[in-house]
């Protein structure tokens, strides 16, 4: 089974993550979603590209790997992996601050009197096993396709980036075969040609030999700490 050191390029983290509220901080892989205040459509092509460039820069500096990243018109999806949950939180805080500053500068009157660009903070969903990680990717892929199929606009879609080849440090092309047994291009075809149920069933079959201990070693920061139910 793939080890975390193969994915992130460093030693396993031995620090136990503190947990608070409903966010499980003992993970390494997180699906983070961020909504714009009042569901406003603020992201155009330029702002979507700006956000992605900023995300890549900050993740590169902090040794965070990007598995998937999607910017819709009024919300974002990021599947990120790091040694510590706090690294991901800090990175997205910096990204959101930069995006907010750019939006406020463009529309200063609209965002005066303390009006915020984003909801208070991203929603973090810890990913606990390899099948879940595979289906999260399919969920994000379908999120994009459902909009494009309506003839609507998607400001930034990482899947076109993956289909055309990876040339960005936080996206490590060696990760996809390690995690999914497929190249990034093969993974996109897999998502394109199969519905969610078929992806789930294929992942269950592909990873049927993975034990709970195998998943815990990869997805937990501290294997001795149980997941929050």
Task: Summarize the entry for a quick read.
The chain has 229 residues and is an alpha+beta fold.
CATH architecture term: 2-Layer Sandwich
- Name the CATH homologous superfamily: Transposase IS200-like
Biggest sheet, in brief?
5 strands, antiparallel
Strand order of the largest sheet: 4-1-3-2-5
CATH class: Alpha Beta
> What proportion of the residues is helical, as a percent range?
40-55%
CATH topology: Alpha-Beta Plaits
- What's the number of structural domains? 1
Shape: globular
- Count of individual helical segments: 9
Commentary on this structure:
This protein has 229 residues and is an alpha+beta fold. The chain has one domain (28-219): Alpha-Beta Plaits (2-Layer Sandwich), CATH 3.30.70. It is built from nine helices and five strands; from the N terminus they run αβαββαβαβααααα. It has a five-stranded antiparallel beta sheet. The longest helix has 22 residues, at 85-106. The radius of gyration is 18 Å and the shape is globular. The two termini are 25 Å apart. 35% of the residues are buried. The model is unreliable at 11-20 (pLDDT under 50).
């Amino acid at each position: 089974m793939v080890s975390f050191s193969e994915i992130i390029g460093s030693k396993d983290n031995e620090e136990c993550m503190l947990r608070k509220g409903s966010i499980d901080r003992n993970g390494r892989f997180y699906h983070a979603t961020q909504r714009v205040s009042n569901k406003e459509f603020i992201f155009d092509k330029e702002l979507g590209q700006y956000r992605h460039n900023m995300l890549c820069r900050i993740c590169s500096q902090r040794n965070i790997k990007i598995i998937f990243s999607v910017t819709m018109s009024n919300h974002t999806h990021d599947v990120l992996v790091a040694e510590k949950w706090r690294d991901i939180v800090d990175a997205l805080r910096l990204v959101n601050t930069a995006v907010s500053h750019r939006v406020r500068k463009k529309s200063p009157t609209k965002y005066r009197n303390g009006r915020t660009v984003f909801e208070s903070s991203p929603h973090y969903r810890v990913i606990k096993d390899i099948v879940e990680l595979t289906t999260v990717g399919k969920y994000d892929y379908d999120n994009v396709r459902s909009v494009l199929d309506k003839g609507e606009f998607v400001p930034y879609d990482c899947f076109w980036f993956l289909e055309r080849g990876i040339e960005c440090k936080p996206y490590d092309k060696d990760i996809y075969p390690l995690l999914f047994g497929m190249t990034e291009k093969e993974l996109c075809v897999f998502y394109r040609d199969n519905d969610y149920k078929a992806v789930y069933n294929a992942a269950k079959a592909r990873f049927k030999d993975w034990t709970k201990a195998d998943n815990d070693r990869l997805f937990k920061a501290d294997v001795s700490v149980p997941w929050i139910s």
